[in-house]
Amino acid sequence: MNLNPKIIAVDFDGTIVEHKYPNIGKEMLFAFATLKELQEKGHHLILWTYREGELLQEAVDYCAENGLVFYAVNESYLGESKEVSYSRKLNADLFIDDRNLGGFVGWDEVWQMLHPDGGAFIHKLKNPKAHHNFREKKSFSFWRK
């Protein structure tokens, strides 16, 4: 199913990073790679989070340090007037959140749902080991040398 939305609202804690609120957790596997690739495909990304004030700024800065700048933050478009027409309900085509029914499916599944024809983007990762929350399966042998 190719949904091809234009405006995507993305949660921060538990979705872009592991849930460690009010701290910032480790990056979820492929979060930044997927989000940057979605931007390259022309999607507008909105950071949609419970965070506010300094905690929100920390999240925005963390994303920027990882090469991700959002179209808007906690608003439907940049500069939305909170006095005139502001609503916590965003005008977005799709919401990506760890609180979805069934939980967060993972960034590889998000990519495949949105762009099944685009194939994997794993080849674009310069250093897959940089995703520090990725757990490699270690083999165990009863026979030691």
TrEMBL record:
It comes from the Bacteria. SUPFAM superfamilies: HAD-like. The keyword Cell membrane does not apply. Keywords: Hydrolase. The keyword Metal-binding does not apply. Transmembrane segments: none annotated. GO terms for molecular function: hydrolase activity. This is Hydrolase. It comes from Pedobacter changchengzhani.
